[in-house]
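note to self: the first set is below, dont mix up w the second
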Amino acid sequence: MGNDDPRRRIPRTDRLLALPEVQRARTRLGEDVIRSVVLGFQDLARKGELAPGNVEPGVLAAVSARGATSLRPVLNATGVVVHTNLGRAALSRSAREALLTAAGYVDVELDLSSGSRSQRGTGTRQALLQACPAAGDALVVNNGAAALLLATTALAGTREVVISRGELVEIGAGFRLPELIESTGARLREVGTTNRTHLSDYESAMGEQTGCLLKVHPSNFRISGFTCSVDIGQLRKLADAHDIPLVVDLGSGLLAPDPLLPEEPDVTGALEAGADVVIASGDKLLGGPQAGLLFGRTDMIARLARHPLARALRADKLALAALEATVSGEEPPVAAALHADPGQLRERAETLAAAVGCPVVEHDGRVGGGGAPGVPLPGWAVQLPENVAHALRTGVPAVLPRVHGGACLVDLRCIPEDDDDRLVQAVRTALARTGDPSGTESS
């Protein structure tokens, strides 16, 4: 390498690692991460893809922006309350504080008074039962699919799980409930047709090989027209006649009826109608962390809790803490967004629109997460040019709008009011980046 080779001007590794800003980054980043950042910029300079003089500024900017996690906070401006791609439910302040508490040593399986081992997550279980008094007991596992897996395995074993063909749903990422259930060794006994299933269909399927009856709420789609289904009360009588358990998978996590969602079944109603075990998700309409919730008769829940699979599927201390705080603490963001006042949403949208010079349009939000399909949540959005969407998604803070009908729509339903000023600045910046600083004129 000659004396005039520009690579000789690349800063040395030890000098870059000794920079004060890099030293301070060690309080939040591991040594391997910091060193990889430094070596990465040096390598770019050696390849001629970066001027040697830009190595140090690049390293400083990178370690300043780098966090210990690759996950980025996002302002949800889609109007979809339970957004699966954004982690579903946003946690309440109470739940976030509970996560910090649970991050250290906590008495998750310890009785501090006696110093002996106790039942795991007792406080969470008690909070769930207080929130849903119709249940004799409750059990928490790591997600809704795990709850269904445990229930069918523990109650049916290798016998038959009787279910309507109209309830053989596919959930997110291509996973199908029939395949999930059959993976346990249980056998599916499908009855009825896609659109019509009668009580006589279930009766014809009952026999010595029946392990349990399973009713699944098709939460992410609707079948209308010439339809027929069997309700929980009718299935309860059939289950009693054959002395087999009745399991109901609701999915959404609604513990009690909500007038806003009159057709969405709830855990309390399912239990009162006669279900032995009801399955729900913690991170949907309940508004908590990812968790599978099993409510039901005391003896049935005890049977599930004793099964070896329960250990493999159990929830960790962070989920237990956040779940307890969700049902015991302040109103979760999911509930607040669902019941947001349309008039107030319009005022906030108009404030944003005035600040960026764009119009306000009517915009229906959605529940999302497979809950209440087709139910509109009336509201408002600020209409921006379609090409602004990319700049919003890649900005700081990242903002996820809805792109629809050739426009970029910013709906404030799921954005905390405390973030309105940040949103205004993000939209202004995105408009400037796309060469349209004034946006579309209001009509």
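second set (the one i keep forgetting abt)
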Amino acid sequence: MRQPLIIDRSHDLHFMREALILAAEGAVLGEVPVGAVVVYQGEVIGRGYNCPIIRHDPSAHAEMVAIRAASVALGNYRLPGSTLYVTLEPCSMCAGLIVHSRVARVVYGAVESKAGVVQSQGQFFEQAFLNHRVLFEGGVLAEECGAILSDFFRDRRAKAKH
């Protein structure tokens, strides 16, 4: 029997801060600083940060890495009742994975106006053809999530000038 999803907004800030820590870890390695955690029954079961450069894997987005780890932790390719916290609005690849893995809820920080598909471009989770509905909420710690990205790209541009 499926457990109902209990949304405790007091935890959203805590878990988004964990995702921000992961984003910072990726930035240290030269990766675009996006972090993600998957939470199930109040516990983090999957963590990830962007790492396509160091893994030589274009699919190694933070969400993908965290969902893969969560699936291993639960021993299931589906994650019903889970929440994904990610510092940046998901792209189309990650949104598809979120649906296929049956993540119940996505909480993201900064808007990705060019390629984000949760609300910015296309509203993917609201498409009639999908066989799974994902709850979503954006803007959690948006300023902090946006700042880590802005700082990263500002520093990268400054280094390129020298």
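remember for set 2: The chain has a mean pLDDT of 94.
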